[in-house]
Amino acid sequence: MARPEQSVEGRGIGEVLQFLQAEFADVTISKIRFLEAEGLVAPARTASGYRKFSAADVERLRYVLTAQRDQYLPLKVIKEHLAAMDRGLRPSAGGPPVAPSSLPEPPGLPVAEDFGAYGTELRLTREELRAAADIPAELLDQVENHGLVVARGNHYDGDALLVATLAGEFARYGIEPRHLRPFRTAADREAGLIEQVTGPRRTEKTEELAALAVRLHAALVRSRLPR
User: Fold this and answer.
1) In CATH, which of 1.10.1660, 1.20.120, 3.30.70, 1.10.20 is domain 112-223?
2) Nearest CA to 3 among 45, 47, 51?
3) What is the pLDDT of residues 59-105, one digit of tens each?
4) What CA–CA distance (Å, rounded) separates 85 from 184?
5) Radius of gyration of the chain (CA)
6) What are the extents of the domains in the chain?
7) Whole-angstrom distance, CA of residue 166 vs CA of residue 172
8) What is the pLDDT of residues 32-63, one digit of tens each?
9) What residues does the HTH merR-type domain cover (predicted)?
């Protein structure tokens, strides 16, 4: 008996070609296969070996074709850009990819949806973190020494970038990283309390409780400031 076909969601190469030709008239199936062979896109395969391109795959192809057509970039450079974008960086004109130049400010008090905005999608080297936060190396050393920023394996995520950036803002008021240790201690206790309720896995309930904790913390700080 024949084995049932493995279900893999996505567009076939013919559909992708038809979609791309609306914007890139000279693209061909051979061109798409070549870009795959060069490692610029890696579509999933069905059990029979048919390619299935996700929406992200199609966007990568659009990026490659646009960079070739509008900027005349060689594939080697485009591949480096894609690798950087996979770490959450953005390409910069005439230079290496960089981290976002500014962090979005959540409107008002944070809500559950704000959590994850600076999460693990971004993967920075230490120097990329320092440059993106726009702080001197000495300050970053202090931030790390006091446990405010911790590397995740060999990289730093978006939360680390936000903390380093805010540490730089505090430094402009003469508040050094050592003065910020109570914030880290409070965060550790709040995270521990939430984990007791939700368990070690991060879930929607974790996000909701984290948002409540931040709102409570902000309200308590404000309530203790002079009127």
Assistant:
1) 1.10.1660
2) 47
3) 999 989 998 888 888 888 888 888 877 777 766 555 555 555 444 44
4) 30
5) 23
6) 13-72, 112-223
7) 10
8) 999 999 999 999 999 888 999 999 899 999 98
9) 22-84
